[in-house]
Amino acid sequence: MTRIAVLPGDGIGPEVVERALEELPRDADIVPVDAGARRYLATGEVLGTDEVARIAACDAVLLGAVGDPRVPDGVLERGILLRLRRELDLYVNLRPFPELGLVFVRENTEGLYCGAGSYRGDVAVETSINTAARVRRCARFAFELAEGRSGRVTLVHKTNVLEHAGRLWREVAEQEAARHPGVALGYEHADAAGYHLVRDPARFDVVLTDNLFGDLLSDVAAGVGDGIGRAASANLHPEPATRPTRCIGLFEPVHGSAPDLAGTGRADPAAAIA
Ligand code: GGG
Question: What are the residues facing 236 on neighbouring strands?
């Protein structure tokens, strides 16, 4: 029996998840997990270590959305979503836009989202960590995906300014391109990629990018395509051989919790169902 951990989360999360649950096979074993603003505000807890273990022992996770204006920034996003991505080692964030003929392969465990940095009141430092091994496994996934599509990978970064991270990403992508001779590697700076996504999305097929650019630009793609309510995403550890837990992935809409829409009946559940 397939065991699915379900985290409805915040805002419109519970209502889109409720609708998505209607689409699951009747014999799926649902493991509800109470994680989100309501619990945090009542108890000060986000997610316990035992709960992460319970989630990791499921076959998959369905998450609605996290984020609530009553909770300080980062508590829920880092404490739930980014923690599960990291602890379950779900290193690929796959964001398909079939209506545009393109798919994002976003590195999902490091970059500017790694959680390193400091705040001193007058100086804030946000560190971007990029390791060749983690970039490589993500790049390999993108190239293998492109082999079954049009044979094009576009690396999106900002190598002209972020020279250290950009160099690593470019070198690793070029090495993977050499290993996949049937796939053509292209490159766009992230700002230009935003422009081209709006003006000419057909120039992209598989977009390989880091955590921040993937988060931002996939919202741009959603806006150009069928809308944020229809954009789905899968956080995956694709190789069974190295998967650290039973869990193959966490599936979530690209959209956030949209607290202003919660309870209005206007939230589109399509992305949660997809
Ligand atoms: N369902 C997606 C969600 O809750 N998103 C909130 C968010 O800020 N996510 C950041 C990310 O995807 O890295």
Answer: 92, 249
